[in-house]
Each structure stands twice: as C-alpha cells, then as structure tokens.
Amino acid sequence: MISFRNVTICFGGTLALGDVSFEIEPEEFVFITGPSGSGKTTILRLILKEIMPDIGEVVIAGRNVAEIEKSELPAYRRSMSMVFQDFRLLSDRTVKENVGLALAIRGVPEAERDGKVKEVLASVGIESKINSFSQQLAGGELQRAVIARAIVGHPKILLADEPTGNLDPDTAWGIVELLETIRKNGTTIIMATHN
Ligand code: ADP
Ligand code: MG
User: Fold this and answer.
1) Is 36's C-beta closer than 6 angstroms to any atom of ligand 1?
2) Residues above pLDDT 70, as percent of the chain
3) 184-193 tens-digit pLDDT
4) Which of 7, 8, 10, 14 to mutate to test the pocket of ligand 1 (most atoms within 8 A of CB)?
5) DSSP strand pairing (80-83 vs 157-161)
C-alpha cells in the first residue's frame, strides 16, 4: 500500500530522513515512533505529496507519487485523511456541520449527508454531541469528532500525527482503540507518536 524506497530528504542543511525504506501492507496499523525532530511528520508529508524526496521513491497504491500531476493532487489527497494533535474543527460550526462539510467536499448530495454524519458519530461514540460546538467538547470528544470527519469519506489511508499528544493516558488509549476499529473496517492507519 505504501512503499518508501531509499528515501532521503534534507531541509536546508538538516538531514530529516536518510536512506529510509519500508513497506506498509493494506489494513496494517503502523506506528512511527521516535523523539521530536526524528522525521515522523516528514514521512506523513511525503505520503501526502506536500514535499518530495531529494533521493529515492515514495510509492502509494502502486503509483510513484512523483508521477502525480498537480491537477490530480486534490483528488489524491482526498483519498486519504489526516488527523493532527491539535484537534482542528471549524469553531463557528457544529460537529454535524464540520463532519457534513467533509462529505460536501467529496460531492455527497445534501440529502444523504445527515444520515452518514449520524452513523459516523455513533461509530466514534459521540452521537450525543452532534449539535455541539468544539469549545463545548472535552479533548477526547473533540478528537473523536476530528476522527469522524476524517473517516466519513471512507479513506483508504488514515494518517494520524500525534493524535493523542494532548490527551491523558486513558483518553489516549480510547483513541487508539477507536483507530484499531477503523482499521478493521478497511483503512490502513499510520500513526506518528513520540510516546
Ligand atoms: P518529528 O515529526 O519527528 O518531530 P519532523 O519530521 O517534523 O520531526 O522534522 C525532522 C527534521 O527536519 C527536524 O530536524 C526538523 O527541524 C526538520 N524540518 C522538518 N520540516 C522542516 C522545514 N519545513 N524546514 C526546515 N526544517 C524542517
Ligand atoms: Mg511531528
């Protein structure tokens, strides 16, 4: 599903990744671990084609990302989803509107959105928060809402960058268990964590 072949990338004089190779199979749940500055986020950004390697190849679903044209990039990135440490939802919209927006972007007709939003919120355990705004949610609930928005379009790949970094250990474990459930439903998951 994801191959890194002898990938090297530098930022200015800083070597971020040096000759990195690995394979990730479909529906694997992979952790990228290492201290701050070790190159975890750089790996995720390479998968998204936000940056390109100086040497080596990144191959996603059989396709070298170097061959993806600029015009194809939005569709390419929509085939995967990203969850960050700092729970980003639009603060002037409800949970329902935030998750619904992800469906609108993917061209899902308005009439179908509500049902899908309710279903995904139930699957992450926060259906009772459907009309809440982000400032009304606890950290773990907010991260569940962000994950709901990330998975509602059924991405093949979910990239999570320190998704538990701002959560207490019990809440963090709940999020990891939720990600494992998502994996079982057919999504490949790559989670970067220093923890
Ligand atoms: P991690 O996510 O493991 O904390 P990063 O992938 O963010 O690590 O960074 C790896 C290294 O590359 C660090 O030394 C970082 O300072 C450097 N780096 C990452 N992105 C940039 C950038 N856009 N410009 C300059 N240096 C960067
Ligand atoms: Mg990082």
Assistant:
1) yes
2) 100
3) 999 999 999 9
4) 14
5) parallel
